[in-house]
Each structure stands twice: as C-alpha cells, then as structure tokens.
C-alpha cells in the first residue's frame, strides 16, 4: 500500500518525498483509523486527505470553513487532474443540481462543503446514499471551545458519526494544545484513532529582527537586497501607517497595494486579486489581511510594528514560504512600540486579569526581540518545543556579543531619579547628553551631577538602554498621557551593583555599514532561462485566468533550470510535475528549455 500512496504522490502531484508525518497520517487513514493531525501552516495538510481520497473507493467529503478558499482549492486540484468540486450556498440552484448529478455519477473524488451546509437534512440525505470514503475536517480546532477560534457550526459535527457510522474521520489543524486535542477527539466521537503532531518549526523561514532607525529606508534595503521582484506582505499596526507606507513603496517603484478594514469592498477585492494573481506584488496591511491567505509562494513577511504576542507573530510570519522554499520573516521595532502597545493594554476596558495576561504576552514577544540566543530556539520554546540553535536566523548568523551595561543603566536610573521621575524618555536623554535645550536650562537641570554624563554615546544608544530597562521592569511608565518614567524598586539591584546588567551589543547607525549579504536568496542557476520560464508561466496564467503559482511553483521552475529536461519523460522528474501537468504544459516548457540549450 505504501508503494501505491507514494506513487500517487509522484504521479499526481509530482513530489518525490512525503513531508513531516504525511505518510503516517495517510497510512492510518487508509487503514481505517480516525486521525487527528496537527501540522504547522504550509506543512502540507491537504495532501493528507487528497491522497486517501484518490486511493480509496467512493467520494471524500472535506469540511472547510472558508467558502472563499474552496474555489481555489478545487481549481488547484483540477490542475493536478484530480476530479474535485464544491457545494456551498453561493451556487445557483442549477449549478447545484448539475454538481449533484456529477457527484452521483461517481466521477468526483473530493467534494468541499461548509459545516453548516453539510449538516442540513437535504445534504445528509444526499450523501447518505453515496459511497463516502472519508470525512476530512479542516481547521478542526474550531470544534473545541478551548481552541482560539471556536465556531458554532463546528459544534454539531459530532453528529456526523451517527449519520456515517463506518466512515473514517480525519481532523486537521495547525494549532491545538493538549486540552484542545483531547476535546476535538471527544467532540467528534473518534473511535480507534491515532494522533500525529508535527514540529512547529518552519525551517525554511529566516528570522531577522532589528531596531527601527529609518523605517522606509530599512524596508527598501531589505526588499531590494533579498526579495526584488518577489511577493510579500508588510504588516503595520494602524490604518494610517498602512496608507503612508504603501504610498512610499509605490513612489520607490514597488508594485504595492494597501489593505485594511477601512477600505471599501471593491478596494479590498482589488488588492486581494492582485495578491492572488501577480508575481511581484507587495501588500501593505493591518492584521485584517490574513484570513484565507493560501498563496504558497509569499517570499517575505515584514513587520514594521511589534505584534502583540508571539502567537500573532508566528501566525503572521507563517504566511511566508508555505511552499517550503526559503523565505524571510523580517521585523523592525523600537521603544515607541513598547510604549504604544503597553498603553493600549493599560487604557483598555478589559479586566485586570486580562491586562496582566496581555502584558505577559507582550513581554514574551519582547523577549524574542531582545534575545541573544537563536530566535528559532526561543520561539519554539515558547510553544513548548525544544530546539538546538538553527544557523538560519540573524542571531545565529551574527554571533551576538553581550556587554556589561551596569554603569550606563545606573546613569539612566540616576537621571530619572534626579529630575523627579516626571519626564519621558526624550527629556531624560537630553539631560544625559547635556542638551542645551531651553527646557533643560530653565529647569536648572544643567546644574545636576548627571547632566551630560552620557554625552559620549548617541541618542539611539540611550533609547536602547531605556527600552531594556522598561522591558525588564526596572523602570515603568507613570502616566500614559505624558509617558513619564519612574523607577521601580527592583532597580536597587543595579544601583547597588548587586547584579551585572548584561545586554546584547547593538550596532549603532553610525557604525552600520550597508550589508551586502543576501541572507535569503535561492541560488539562481541560469537566471535568464528562469526568467523565460517565468514569462511563459505568466502568459499561460493570464490566458487561463489562473494564478501563476497554480501552473507551477517557483521551485518547479528552478528545478527545470537545474535538470534541463529534454523530453516529456524527463520533464516528469521535475518537482511538482505530475501526469496531468506534464500533458498540459510539458511541450510548451520543453520548447523554451530547448531554445535555451541551443
Ligand atoms: P497547509 O498545511 O498549510 O494546509 P498545504 O496543504 O496548502 O499546506 O500545502 C502547502 C504547499 O506544500 C502546497 O503547495 C503543497 O502542494 C506543497 N506540498 C505538500 N506536500 C508536499 C510534499 N510532500 N512535497 C513537496 N511539496 C508538498
Ligand atoms: Zn537561529
């Protein structure tokens, strides 16, 4: 059997090897066991039900909450030559009848439905008369009230067991802690079952987090150096900033669109369409842009503001590189982020308990930013997984040095104390650096012993120290309106030199050289051939109104450049080329490759 499922992987999807637990999951399902599979985004959950659906007799029902994604999924499957369709409330009566007839005739192997759709009397009766091979439940965490996206429609899915007593159930999700997992198994009335957990690690994503110095310049350099002409998402905290950044990027010549909840339906649709269809598109967005992103070849996710928690950060960055090719998660942040986010928490109407929790989450996120350890190690630790250092993140590559900042921390604490604990960071830095600012002089702060004791270091450095002191709770914000700083009891540790205050070395603007290193660049062999293949793909895509990535992924094109296939049987060796795509596109691509060789 394992031979046969591997054959389906190769012949239909054009892939050589299973990933993560795919093979075990598929084996369990075709052997008749119920399965709960937890796999990170992009790991390849779909194949876990698609291959059993092809292997088993009858039709597989896939329950998916997002109507908007059904169409994409079906289109993608048809490209692979898999007979699939969907039934949902957006179909006309005639369309529906036509599809139901097709399903009855036994032609269709996979049908997508929404949970509320399937649970209607009519649909249950319809499927009750058919030979159902398996029921797959996507986004299965929605079944449980412990999962973070509990949905009412999912609650009733347990009833399906009664309607389909002999059918195998496969529940799939990217997020489920142990409590949620137990609940899913219970709610869905699993019988003999297996649970498969894959690591949360996304080894193809490169993590980089730096201080914000000059936002647009940094973003521009990052994209130009690593991802010119590729697709990415830029996340900002506010709508206003989304608009500003999108305009700046357009001015710099990027194909950038903006997306946030305040845009009209039409504007949002336009951005979404561009994102689905174009190759070099950058979407600048608030986190409103996220649900239903299925594009596998997003090459970078950039954060211009700090996310509220590691969960958010990981979910957002996880939208990069779902195809398994190298991709970047890049972020800049600064003192202002911490102040802004803390302020949002403090001034919200939420309960104290909630505020406490939110603050703890923010602190964990900051921990990831400020760490001198491997970012991946820290992130996975947060999710309860252990992991050695990765060599594919900025801290692993840079060999972060630490230094003793005790004296400088004392200088900051003394300055806050001597000026009366009523000023904000900017003023404290002015005093430290001996500014001739009128306010400083009027208040007589130029006569304090702390005046100008920090003039040897730039503003940026002192801002860094203050941020660190805030993050580790040596100081706090007294009043959110004025953002003035006060000293916490704990700081006596530093003032009395009980501890050494070690920090990671930062690179200051003055010392920063323009890096020429491309951290995330796929080795492009035969660049011009790749470009020709890309333009052929673009042509076919626009003729057939399909997104280019549905024709072939970038990885497939790179593979063509590497293998240089001469005929259709060699073309089958290319990653992502199964029989259907070989027939459909083989000749066209072979022609371009042939021309290149001559
Ligand atoms: P998710 O787990 O997020 O639902 P998908 O099922 O959409 O992920 O798969 C992500 C991408 O990985 C798709 O482009 C899919 O074709 C590809 N993929 C899945 N399994 C494999 C594999 N074994 N080898 C190579 N690519 C794969
Ligand atoms: Zn690392």
- Our measurement of the CA-to-CA distance between the termini, rounded to an integer number of angstroms, reads 44 Å
Question: How can the largest sheet be summarized?
Answer: 7 strands, parallel
Structural category is alpha/beta
Oligomer: single chain
The backbone outline, from C-alpha atoms, is globular
Task: Write down the overall mean pLDDT.
Answer: 90
**What number of domains?**
4
**Widest beta sheet: strand line-up:** 3-4-2-5-6-1-7
What is the percent of helical residues? 40-55%
Radius of gyration: 28 Å
- CATH level 1 name of the largest domain: Alpha Beta
Number of helices: 28
The CATH architecture of the largest domain can be given as 3-Layer(aba) Sandwich
